[in-house]
Every structure is written in C-alpha cells, then in structure tokens.
# Entry
Amino acid sequence: MARVFLLSPANCSGERAQLLFSTRAAFPLARRLREGDVPLGEVMTFVSGLYFRGKLAYAETFGIPLVITADAGLRPADTPVTLAMLRASARVDIDAANPRYRRPLEQSARAVAARLGPDDSVTLLGSIASDKYVSVLLAVFGDRLTFPGDFVGRGDMSRGGLLLRCVRAGRELDYVPVAGAIRHGARPPRLERIR
# Structure
C-alpha cells in the first residue's frame, strides 16, 4: 500500500520569500535560485521553516510527498523551480474560489487519483480548518482523503515539531477521514521538549 502525502504550501509572498527574491541576498539558496533552479521542497522549507520541514521529512519517510502549489497544482517536492516561477506563484491567491489556483489543483489531483491502487491512500499534511485545500481535495478524493487526527487544535509550529518527532521515532500518526471530521478543537498539551 502506498500513501501519498499532500503538503500544503508555504506563503511565497511572505517576508522569508521576499528574502529569496532580493537581488542583494547573498545566502546560498538565494544565489542558487538566481543562477538556475532549486527543488520546490527546499524552497518551501526555507520560506516556511519548521512546519514545512516537518511535513517534508515525514512525507519522505512514510510515503510519497506532493506539494500543493498556488498555480501549478500538485508537484513532487523535488520539482525544480526558478525565481521567475516563484514570483509568478506569489501573485496567485490560494483560495478555492480562484480558478488560477483551483483548476491546476483539480487537474493534478484527478491525475493522482487515477493512478491510485485500491489500497493506496491520500493524506493531507496541512490545515483542514479552512476550505482552501479541503473543498478541492475532498471533491476529488472523497473518503480516501485523510489527515493526522493529532493535528486538530495544533498550530503550525506544534504540527511541525510533532512530525519531526515522529520521523525521529519511526512512528506514523493515526489518520482519520477528512469527510465528516471535527476540523476545529481544543488545543492539545504542549509537546515535551527534546533533550
């Protein structure tokens, strides 16, 4: 059985993304982007930090990672992206009502669904509290779409920390169907500090 993980994207119009776009940025990732292309997962990890790093590490450990993009649907984490591609993506609003976001996501999700075997599953590693991912993905994957139940009530940093702890322990979380799930809940206890 294969598990496909759908990783919600980082905000490519935020402050950290603007660092990448700066022509004065001298750090290695920015220089590499100006000179050519860089894997999508590496860029999203830089832009988002702990949360995306946790999602990517978890998905690579336990299944197949696909990144939800603002304008190109689902893409493998190792997809090469350029600075021009990132700038174009930053101009697209991630909103289920926006056809520039929704259409590519629907098309790529249908392509993934067509390749799934009967025992394969799809898990969203992202917020299920808003419809910007859920409404589009549920329409394609239906009951096959799951999410980690431990995400309910957690903020982004807590989710990232939880995912990295699971990778370190070699333990997968329990998944529950998105359809009919409780999407908002009480904040769980803080994660224990790693010593």
Strands lie at 3-7, 38-39, 64-68, 74-76, 80-81, 121-125, 145-148, 175-177. The two ends are 35 Å apart (CA to CA). Residues 106 and 136 are 7 Å apart (CA to CA).
